[in-house]
């Protein structure tokens, strides 16, 4: 590191993330950091995280591909197909690589509910791929709700018997990036940190503090309404959405300041409650997402 | 001598698809598509709050999540007897337009182009075949557009977020239209972004697709399939604007002209799907079967929807032909061209809708849940007709059925011997090099398979009374 980053420079999460990626770019150009291999595995999920990554802005996905990593495998993007694609996954096993996984691991019927390819004419299940690559990877990123804690793929009654990546790799340390989907900055910023300084500081659940340390509620622009007890009664109202079931008071992300899709908006900005998509236990622990009167008398289930 | 070719995974699609073909004398004689992912959304939805269906079902698919918010909102409006204001419809349909644009641009440049264009020296773009025919100047131009398209598709999602909060998995589409109100600022923000996207489609995407077609004319001769087309209607039936794109129509080779679509002709079959139930055929609003990965005859997680017993093709080409806007033919290349032409069409529709939007209209109210109700939402989305059928009991979801566009296009065969649409489209295809068959992937990708969507489906196998939805 040339210059330590100290005040009076801006210490917002956004500014730190921006500095990280600019520094990464500079160091990469100067040959100070080497591009590393990245394997991006999609398992039992909606492939929405890779779509979110394509939405990344500064750093963009193009930049990531050209300046940060050699993307060696991605079901959504690679030109190869069939066993020739799987071969690229096998080849990387003997090299140094960072593993990013989105989607949960389906356990039912030995993993046959999620077959991601074939190898030597045999189906390669998500379970096999996660274990095979997870054991060899130098760093692991669990990307999105399904990979970090099962997410929607493991929602009750969990028909595919899906579990988190950590559940099938209990001894491996991994960085967890919950979110449905992950914010592109959370992923790309973490990746940049890994390449520059190693693994970022995380909380007891494995989430990088630079993105997941503060409650939405603590930085919510509608907090003054909460403090004065002025609550929305329906979607579309401009006041505090707490009584419609807003999960901002329990969800730790920087959505209020970072916002989404080039910082144009975010769920609360859209006059809807946060549904806690970045909380462990989402969706079941965060349901119901929308209640028109949370002060009602709750009937027995 | 016949040779068996298996492609698994078929990459550059959403989700997991396996394809097995038999090639005899360099011609495909048999084909089987296998959906390789099962999640079970329909079972997960039972017991949840009906309002949660809108955000929950979006998680079926990362590339077309807004589609599921559309169908679930329509189904809930049907069940709750809510009629949205036209302003609500306009705004919701604008969000849907944004998804079409995002999807079509990404599908063409990120998923389709690498089949025909050598992108660059990068581990990600290493190819398996050498059938790259474009002159260097054109190849380099489209290869550059692969990257130039990324800020454009990104800004399509940005437009979606302006009205929808975030993308993918938006918060905006809901009962009544959208959750928030339009403002003058948002309208010009959208119009400005749309202008850049429209210019990209006109100046780059459409010329690029026709250049590819020029150098790969043989793809006009393959991938045709049955020629049965279906749409549930798209941007249609506005009170004042009428139909901006296409009404609900079907056509088969036996018909002289397209006929109105009739929902009661839809059934789903599971003879060759990994599901069991006493009867192998049922209506969408009946209950559906249990997953059974060990079923002997089964070979896919995708079920087989049929219209009057026929497999039907859905998607941009079907819509363009049924609306009378495209007459060239039905083939792999026509399908790819249709997607680019449709992107232009959708941009025009969005412009029209934007002109109608009034700022500051509150579209939301406090909704009450009935003790019991049924509803269905059918809408054409990026890949074709999407249907959600739901039932409410004790103010909770008691039933949820989803038939996605890729279920129509990537179904397995049925008891009448009909193959799925994509399977049929492969039959008769000449394969130049059976060891590196470029043709199969190109034909399948022309359908824009979304196997995350096609293979989510499942609900508890308890027989309930059939309920007429009209």
Strand and helix map with partners:
The complex is a heterodimer of chains A (301) and B (470).
Chain A: H1 13-29, E1 36-42, H2 48-54, H3 61-68, E2 69-74, H4 83-91, E3 97-102, E4 105-106, H5 108-111, E5 115-119, E6 122-125, H6 126-136, E7 139-143, H7 144-149, E8 162-163, H8 165-168, E9 175-177, H9 184-197, H10 209-212, H11 223-228, H12 255-258
Parallel strand pairs in A: 1-2, 1-3, 3-7, 7-9
Antiparallel strand pairs in A: 4-8, 5-6
Chain B: E1 2-7, E2 17-24, E3 27-35, H1 41-45, H2 53-58, H3 65-80, H4 86-116, H5 136-164, E4 173-174, E5 177-178, H6 184-215, E6 229-231, E7 249-251, E8 259-260, E9 266-269, E10 275-276, E11 281-282, E12 290-291, E13 304-307, H7 316-322, H8 332-356, E14 372-381, E15 384-393, E16 396-403, H9 405-409, H10 421-426, H11 438-445, H12 451-454
Describe the overall structure:
- The complex is a heterodimer of chains A (301) and B (470).
- By secondary structure, chain A is of the alpha/beta class.
- Chain A is built from twelve helices and nine strands.
- Chain A has helices at 13-29, 48-54, 61-68, 83-91, 108-111, 126-136, 144-149, 165-168, 184-197, 209-212, 223-228, 255-258; strands spanning 36-42, 69-74, 97-102, 105-106, 115-119, 122-125, 139-143, 162-163, 175-177.
- In chain A, strands 2-1-3-7-9 form a five-stranded parallel beta sheet, sandwiched between helices. Chain A has a two-stranded antiparallel sheet with strand order 4-8.
- In chain A, strand 5 and strand 6 form a beta hairpin.
- The radius of gyration of chain A is 20 Å and the shape is globular.
- In chain B, the strands form six sheets. Chain B has a three-stranded antiparallel beta sheet with strand order 1-2-3. Chain B has a three-stranded antiparallel beta sheet with strand order 6-7-8, with helices on one face.
- With 470 residues, chain B is an alpha+beta fold.
- Chain B has helices spanning 41-45, 53-58, 65-80, 86-116, 136-164, 184-215, 316-322, 332-356, 405-409, 421-426, 438-445, 451-454, and strands spanning 2-7, 17-24, 27-35, 173-174, 177-178, 229-231, 249-251, 259-260, 266-269, 275-276, 281-282, 290-291, 304-307, 372-381, 384-393, 396-403.
- Chains A and B meet through helix 2, helix 3, strand 2, helix 4 and strand 5 of A and helix 4 and helix 5 of B.
């Amino acid at each position: 590191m040339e210059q330590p980053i100290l005040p009076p420079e801006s210490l917002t999460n956004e500014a730190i993330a921006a500095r990280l990626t600019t520094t990464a770019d500079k160091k990469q150009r100067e040959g100070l950091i080497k591009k590393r291999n990245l394997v991006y595995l999609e398992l039992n999920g909606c492939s929405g995280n890779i779509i979110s990554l394509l939405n990344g802005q500064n750093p963009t996905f193009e930049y990531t591909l050209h300046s940060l990593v050699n993307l060696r495998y991605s079901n959504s993007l690679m030109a190869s197909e069939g066993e020739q694609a799987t071969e690229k996954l096998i080849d990387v096993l003997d090299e140094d690589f960072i593993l990013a996984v989105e989607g949960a691991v389906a356990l039912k019927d030995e993993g046959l509910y999620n077959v991601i390819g074939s190898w030597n004419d045999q189906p390669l299940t998500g379970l096999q791929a996660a274990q095979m690559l997870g054991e060899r990877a130098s760093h692991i990123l669990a990307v999105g709700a399904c990979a970090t804690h099962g997410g929607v793929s493991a929602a009750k009654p969990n028909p595919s018997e899906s579990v988190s990546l950590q559940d099938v790799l209990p001894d491996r340390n991994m960085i967890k990036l919950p979110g449905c989907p992950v914010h592109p900055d959370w992923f790309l910023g973490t990746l940049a940190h890994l390449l520059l300084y190693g693994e970022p500081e995380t909380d007891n659940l494995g989430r990088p503090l630079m993105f997941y340390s503060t409650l939405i509620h603590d930085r919510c622009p509608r907090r003054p309404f909460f403090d004065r007890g002025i609550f929305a009664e329906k979607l579309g109202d401009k006041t505090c959405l707490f009584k419609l079931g807003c999960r901002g008071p329990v969800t730790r992300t920087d959505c209020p300041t970072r916002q989404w899709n080039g910082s144009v908006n975010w769920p609360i900005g859209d006059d809807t409650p946060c549904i806690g998509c970045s909380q462990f236990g989402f969706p079941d622990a965060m349901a119901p997402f929308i209640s028109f009167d949370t002060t009602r008398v709750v009937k027995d289930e | 001598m016949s040779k068996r070719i298996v492609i698994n995974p078929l990459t550059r699609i959403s989700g997991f698809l396996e394809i097995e073909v038999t090639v005899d004398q360099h011609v495909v004689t048999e084909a089987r598509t296998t959906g390789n992912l099962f999640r079970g959304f329909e079972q997960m939805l039972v017991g949840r709050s009906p309002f949660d269906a809108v955000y929950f079902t979006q998680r079926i698919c990362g590339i077309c999540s807004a589609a599921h918010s559309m169908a679930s909102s329509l189904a809930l409006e049907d069940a709750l007897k809510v009629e949205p204001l036209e302003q609500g419809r306009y705004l919701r349909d604008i969000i849907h337009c944004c998804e079409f644009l995002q999807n079509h641009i990404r599908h063409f440049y990120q998923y389709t182009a690498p089949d025909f264009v050598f992108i660059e020296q990068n581990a990600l773009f290493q190819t398996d075949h050498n059938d790259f025919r474009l002159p260097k100047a054109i190849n380099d131009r489209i290869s550059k557009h692969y990257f130039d398209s990324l800020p454009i598709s990104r800004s399509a999602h940005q437009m979606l977020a302006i009205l929808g909060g975030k993308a993918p998995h938006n918060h905006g589409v809901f009962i009544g239209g959208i959750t928030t109100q339009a403002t003058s600022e948002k309208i010009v923000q959208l119009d400005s972004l749309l202008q850049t996207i429209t210019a990209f489609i006109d100046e780059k995407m459409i010329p690029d697709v026709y250049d590819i077609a020029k150098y790969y004319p043989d793809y006009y001769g393959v991938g045709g399939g049955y020629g049965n087309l279906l749409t549930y209607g798209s941007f249609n039936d506005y009170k004042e604007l009428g139909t901006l794109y296409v009404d609900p129509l079907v056509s088969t080779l036996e018909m002289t002209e397209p006929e109105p679509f009739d929902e009661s002709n839809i059934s789903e079959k599971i003879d060759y799907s990994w599901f069991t139930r006493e009867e192998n055929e049922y209506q969408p609003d009946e209950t559906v079967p249990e997953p059974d990965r060990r079923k002997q005859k089964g070979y896919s997680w995708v079920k087989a929807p049929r219209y009057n017993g026929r497999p039907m093709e859905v998607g941009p080409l079907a819509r363009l032909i049924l609306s009378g806007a495209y007459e060239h033919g039905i083939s792999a290349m026509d399908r790819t061209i249709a997607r680019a032409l449709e992107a232009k069409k959708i941009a025009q529709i969005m412009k029209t809708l934007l002109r109608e939007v009034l700022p500051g209209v509150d579209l939301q109210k406090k909704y009450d849940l009935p003790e019991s109700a049924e509803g269905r939402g059918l809408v054409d989305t990026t890949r074709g007709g999407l249907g959600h059928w739901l039932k409410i009991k004790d103010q909770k979801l008691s039933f949820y059925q989803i038939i996605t566009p890729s279920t129509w296009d990537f179904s397995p065969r049925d008891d009448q011997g009909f193959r799925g649409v994509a399977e049929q489209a492969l039959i008769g295809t000449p394969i130049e090099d059976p060891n590196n068959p470029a043709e199969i992937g190109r034909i399948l990708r022309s359908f824009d398979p979304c196997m995350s969507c096609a293979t989510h489906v499942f609900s508890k196998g308890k027989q309930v009374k059939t309920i007429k939805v009209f």
